[in-house]
């Protein structure tokens, strides 16, 4: 009979790609793990290779990866059973699918990747056989790479008028994960606009001093293209590299900052009380979207898993 202990040891070895590291994590000896995995192998028939030892640690075979996936699912089901027995409220994880890609690369620029800090750990814990990574790529290079590789995904801010950019690539498809108004951050005591204004037009905005950023260039550049149609000599006196500096410029009423209000209704009313700022939407009702971009031949189960976890991350930050 297969023991729960063996399944735990198996998933921990997969998590660290090391028997020694797994043993340290579980406070057991490496020999205990080796012995338990040998018993597991015997229970499964004996004539299988679960993993191979290399100079870089443990490398799981295809059979081993499938066993890790199944063991992870079984352990989660056992945990649910215990919680049900204790009358705990469960949140179903409907996307625990039987198989996803071994290698997933998510491209996202710095302006959006900072919202995904928990995602690598989530994949590491739930899908230990998956090599998941987030890399920073310029928007256009991101699109070209995804167009050529079904294992690469992209996450980007895209304005309504730029969604058509994706149609220029024959292999690209996308899904909108979140949508918000395009607008500006402005001081509540600003001299640039009336205190009782509830929105600002693109024409008005094109005449104001605008502080630029280096950490969310994709959304910013799309926004600026809209403004250039009203004024081809925009006033952009400042360029900053972090949100703190940007907010200080805006708070001093030296400039306004381009923004998409990806936030809760409460935050839209008073987004940054310590800086005495407010968010003001553009009157043309232009929307910015957080978009997951993928290859048309992507593995459907991998897409569903990634979409689910991205939606959870984005929801935790913006909703």
Shape: elongated
Taking the sheet with the most strands, its summary is:
9 strands, mixed
Give the total of beta strands: 11
- The string of secondary-structure elements, in order, is HHHEEHEHHEHEEHEHEHEHEEH
What is the name of the CATH class of the largest domain?
Alpha Beta
CATH architect. name of the largest domain: 3-Layer(aba) Sandwich
What structural class should be given to the helix and strand makeup? alpha/beta
Rg over alpha carbons:
25 Å
CATH superfamily of the largest domain: Periplasmic binding protein-like II
Alpha-carbon distance between the two ends: 46 Å
Low-confidence stretches: 90-98, 263-270
Beta content:
15-25%
Number of helices: 12
User: Mean pLDDT, rounded to whole units?
Assistant: 83
Helical content (DSSP H or I, runs of 4+): 40-55%
What's the CATH topology label of the largest domain?
Answer: D-Maltodextrin-Binding Protein, domain 2
Number of domains: 3
Annotation keywords:
Arc Repressor Mutant, subunit A, alpha/beta, D-Maltodextrin-Binding Protein, domain 2, 319 residues, two-stranded antiparallel ribbon, single chain
Describe the fold and architecture:
- With 319 residues, this protein is of the alpha/beta class.
- The chain has 3 domains: 4-85, Arc Repressor Mutant, subunit A; 103-177 and 289-318, Periplasmic binding protein-like II (D-Maltodextrin-Binding Protein, domain 2), CATH 3.40.190.10; 180-287, Periplasmic binding protein-like II (D-Maltodextrin-Binding Protein, domain 2).
- The chain contains 12 helices and 11 strands.
- It has helices at residues 4-16, 19-26, 30-43, 62-85, 110-113, 119-126, 139-148, 202-205, 217-228, 243-251, 265-269, 300-318; strands at residues 51-54, 57-60, 103-108, 131-135, 152-159, 172-187, 209-213, 235-240, 256-260, 277-281, 287-295.
- A hairpin with a 2-residue loop joins strand 1 and strand 2 (57-60).
- Helix 1 crosses helix 2 and helix 1 packs across helix 4 (62-85).
- It is elongated and about 75 Å long.
- The relative contact order is 0.14.
- Mean pLDDT is 83; it is low at 90-98 and 263-270.
């Amino acid at each position: 009979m297969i023991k729960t202990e063996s399944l735990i040891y198996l998933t921990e070895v997969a998590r660290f790609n090391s028997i020694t590291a797994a043993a340290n994590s579980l406070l057991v000896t490496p020999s205990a793990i080796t012995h338990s995995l040998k018993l597991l192998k015997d229970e499964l028939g004996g004539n299988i290779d679960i993993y191979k030892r290399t100079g870089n640690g443990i490398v799981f075979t295809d059979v081993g990866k499938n066993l890790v996936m199944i063991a992870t699912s079984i352990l989660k089901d056992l945990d649910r059973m215990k919680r049900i027995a204790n009358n705990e409220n469960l949140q179903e994880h409907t996307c625990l699918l039987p198989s996803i890609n071994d290698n997933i690369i998510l491209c996202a620029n710095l302006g959006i990747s900072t919202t995904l800090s928990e995602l690598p750990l989530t994949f590491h814990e739930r899908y230990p056989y998956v090599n998941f990574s987030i890399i920073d790529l310029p928007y256009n290079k991101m699109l070209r790479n995804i167009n050529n590789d079904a294992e690469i995904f992209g996450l980007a801010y895209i304005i309504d008028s730029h969604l058509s950019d994706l149609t220029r690539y024959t292999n690209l498809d996308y899904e909108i994960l979140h949508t918000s108004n395009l607008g500006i951050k402005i001081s509540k005591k600003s001299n640039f606009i009336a205190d009782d204004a509830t929105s600002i037009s693109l024409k008005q905005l094109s005449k104001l001093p605008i502080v630029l950023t280096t950490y969310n260039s994709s959304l910013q550049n799309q926004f600026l293209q809209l403004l250039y149609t009203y004024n081809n000599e925009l006033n952009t006196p400042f360029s900053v590299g972090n949100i703190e500096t940007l907010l200080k410029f805006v708070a001093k009423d030296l400039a306004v900052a381009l923004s998409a209000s990806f936030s809760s209704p409460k935050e839209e009313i008073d987004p940054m009380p310590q800086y005495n700022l407010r968010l003001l939407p553009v009157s043309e009702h232009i929307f910015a979207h957080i978009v997951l971009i993928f290859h048309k031949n992507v593995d459907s189960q991998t897409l569903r898993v990634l979409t689910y976890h991205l939606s959870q991350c984005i929801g935790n930050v913006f909703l």
